Amino acid sequence: MNTEHLAKRNLLIMWFANFFIAGSMTMVMPFLSLYIETFGNFSDPYVQRWSGLTFGITFFTAFIFSPIWGRIGDHYGRKIILVLSGIGLALCVFLMGFVTSVLQLFILRLFMGVFTGFISTSQALISTQTPKDISGRALGTLQTGNVTGSLMGPLFGGVLADTVGFSSTFQLTSISLFIAAMFVLLGIQEYRIETENESAQPYSRKEVIHYILTHPVLLTVMIVSMFVQIAHFSIQPILALYVSELHGPVNLAFYSGIAFSIAGLGNLLMARKWGKIADSIGYEKVLVFLLLASGIIYLPGAFVENIWQLVALRFLLGITIGGIIPVRTAYIRQVAPVSIQGEVLGYSTSLRFLGNIIGPALGGLLASAYGFTSVFFTTTALLLIGGFSFGLILQKQPKAIGKYSS
Description:
InterPro entries: MFS, MFS_dom, MFS_trans_sf, Tet-R_TetA/multi-R_MdtG-like
Transmembrane segments: 12-36, 48-68, 80-100, 106-126, 138-157, 169-188, 208-232, 252-270, 282-301, 307-331, 351-370, 376-394
Subcellular location: Cell membrane
Number of strands: 0
Shape: globular
Domain Major facilitator superfamily (MFS) profile: 10-398
GO molecular function, one term: transmembrane transporter activity
Largest sheet: none
């Protein structure tokens, strides 16, 4: 089997694996705050606060482990990491169906963070198998698997939660996670593309960090990725509560699922196209545009008066914010040597997870103290600051992709 055919086969398998992983993980997101309410007679501020903390704690352990998995993947391969990640996630989610307190749920989501690196590791796997000039397109294609799962997951999760209850939904979700792990175990054949001017020699952790710090645009891309996650995830844990305020309690899990998943539809329509556009005109330009556009789209969310206005805005948001991840990953593929791409992506993912930690906690605290609208104002400010800051750095560091020595 030649490498071109093998690359297409691996991309197809990882597309389906990402579909199952993303779908499974987003199945439970719309009703996490509602699940917490079943543990006792709690006040709204209590539920909002613990929704943020329980949602965010997963990313605390992911923040710690992501660079470690990246470095292990660079040295020993990414297939084994993907398999362990899928099985670990399946076990954690299965056990969540049996918890009886907020603390138990909190602890399980903390342990879940150790294994929350499947999608980022799959990006590293496909990135190292893809020629640089089409990396944006390939990673955009992979992203559509992620967003298709994210699109369908909340809808299925909402329907399942309303039909069979929260506990059974967690148990059914764990089956999908296990299937994703089996796809990788039985189907993936790992290899990577080496180029003439890229050394295969191993780099120490100190050398990798030095490489990142001496490439200002790369460093800024990684930091801005954290800003994006803070902004995007600040609304996630309280979205169901916001939907409840706009729409009322009737079929709440279902309508929360629509609000979550509609962003995935916009993402699905444009993720591959953003990657293709970025391959043609430059990743930096596309990233600046997407950051500014996302910030502008978030702002009207503070002023919506019904559920369908919120749904329309989240669809537009999906079109813009969904292109950021594949374009960012393709940019790193361009500037980082093959032998350290996994670790560089690991540090980038770690910063994203740090944003995932800060975002839900910040969103929960802001919502409980100042109301839901304050979350939208903060989110808009972060994205606009990120976009303008990145644009200024580009003006000071005009060297484009391909100018960095590997």
